[in-house]
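Hi! If you just cloned this repository, the fastest way to understand the data is to look at a raw example. We've pasted two of them here, unedited. The first protein comes first, obviously.
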Amino acid sequence: PSRRRGGPPRPTAMAAEAGIDYADPRCKYEHPLVERYSSKEMSYIWSPHKKFTTWRRLWTALAQAEKELGLSITDEQLAEMRAACDTVDFEAAERYEAQFRHDVMGHVHAFGDAAPAARAIIHLGATSCYVGDNTDLIQ
């Protein structure tokens, strides 16, 4: 069953609903202690997929807040960003990172490919620490 009697959904049911594929190596944190002691759900929390989808959620939240403050950001841009939060093209991000020699810029550009209408506003006014530090806190 996907729910405990009277309790919250089981982690594996929530993962299935979110489309998390625990067999994908990018959905698993690699470390010897993880192999021995952690559940797949715990390992996912520290995985590259979780990290970079969190970056995308943070950029989307930033754009929403900037729109509320009066910046010229459209609903279409926000919708594209929301739609692309969970699908990371890791190969594109790696190519961009090699080109720019910067992990955050690699993912900014890969996110821009996935949400082209929002390309100009992704990471607008932010520093690399905005996504890095906040993701560390969320994880």
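Ok, and the second one:
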Amino acid sequence: GHDFMDYNAETGLGGTDGCLDMTHPDNAGLPGCLYSGEEFGFSLNGVYQQWCDTVSLADFIVIGAEAVIDYTRRVYQQAVPEAGRINFRNRFRYGRTTVTSCEYSYHRLPNPEVCSDVQRVFVDNLGLDWTEAAALMG
């Protein structure tokens, strides 16, 4: 989510570009998962190294996110068998360009305690309704 939430609909900058500012306080918890692997014993970066000559980091992050959604959906289906599967494979579009510097994203992430930030990022920039914004924030 931190990769795409910096999308700016007016400028077209940000979005699923593979660029995360690890010095930004909102991203403070990400290095352990993305680079060091301290959370799960492996890192996204370590897994990406097997594919870095084949797919952009921007595409790989989207693939990883969709894999997590697919896994959690299958877990949910165990409790609710009538829930359908989500077929990401047939709709996936390759070709995202990885951006290596994203100063434009600083302060683009929402403060979840401020409704105007939630509206700016999720409703205005990403086109979600309030129910979808609440679901995305958990």
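That's it. A detail worth noticing about the second one: The two ends are 12 Å apart (CA to CA).
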